[in-house]
Amino acid sequence: EAQVTQNPRYLITVTGKKLTVTCSQNMNHEYMSWYRQDPGLGLRQIYYSMNVEVTDKGDVPEGYKVSRKEKRNFPLILESPSPNQTSLYFCASSLREQELKGEQYFGPGTRLTVT
Amino acid sequence: AQRVTQPEKLLSVFKGAPVELKCNYSYSGSPELFWYVQYSRQRLQLLLRHISRESIKGFTADLNKGETSFHLKKPFAQEEDSAMYYCASITGGSNYKLTFGKGTLLTVNP
């Protein structure tokens, strides 16, 4: 089944403890992206990647890192999480051709709470 | 920078009533516009795109360049239409960035 998976789905952590949220897609998509969803703010892009080893900042990259060593994986890294990073995180992917048409496939989301 | 505005955070209608979810964009060129939908406890998914001029689940959306709008409409709302709706736009150039509005929560009452 073609899909985007994220792990973990739920995470409660403490300020300053490094964490990684994994994202994987099995559709051979070139483009991958991370968003955070907050009430009243909608979805905001954190980082995106046009292909392997190509990443760039979105609208709200502060406090996050990403890497794209393989086409299928795009992990989101929080080196020193803070409470303002408590949010619902979505990973998305698309083909380059489809990206021109805005059709992104979304993962199920990861609910992160930083205390 | 391009912006997508959805003026209504909440919209409540009765089953069978017409529904219109508003979306305005700010971009001087020719953006491509989309509506995404997120049903309760489900992932975000594409509903429709303006370039296809299609009708999905009875919804349609017309791009009005004069008013810079891309409102989503359905003549007769159903209870299963209750969901969060996001308008989004994409521009070309080097980063193909998808920009979302803040979303409208539609509730269709029986």
Q: How would you characterize the overall build of this protein?
A:
The complex is a heterodimer of chains A (115) and B (110). In chain A, strand 5 (42-51) and strand 6 form a beta hairpin. Chain A starts with a strand and ends with a strand. The longest helix of chain A is centred in the last third of the chain and has 4 residues, at 96-99. Chain A is globular, with a radius of gyration of 13 Å. Chain A has 115 residues and is mostly beta strands. Chain A has 1 helix and 11 strands, in the order E-E-E-E-E-E-E-E-E-H-E-E. With 110 residues, chain B is mainly beta. Chain B has one domain: Immunoglobulins (Immunoglobulin-like), CATH 2.60.40.10. Helices cover 0% and strands 44% of the residues of chain B. Chain B contains no helices and 11 strands. Chain B has strands at residues 3-5, 10-14, 19-21, 24-26, 32-38, 45-49, 60-61, 72-74, 83-90, 98-100, 104-109. In chain B, strands 2, 5, 6, 9, 10 and 11 form a 6-stranded mixed sheet that branches. In chain B, strand 5 and strand 6 (45-49) form a beta hairpin.
Give a concise summary:
With 115 residues, chain A is mainly β.
Layout of helices and strands, plus pairs?
The complex is a heterodimer of chains A (115) and B (110).
Chain A: E1 4-7, E2 10-13, E3 19-25, E4 31-38, E5 42-51, E6 54-57, E7 65-66, E8 76-78, E9 87-94, H1 96-99, E10 105-106, E11 110-114
Parallel strand pairs in A: 2-11
Antiparallel strand pairs in A: 1-3, 3-8, 4-5, 4-9, 5-6, 7-8, 9-10, 9-11
Chain B: E1 3-5, E2 10-14, E3 19-21, E4 24-26, E5 32-38, E6 45-49, E7 60-61, E8 72-74, E9 83-90, E10 98-100, E11 104-109
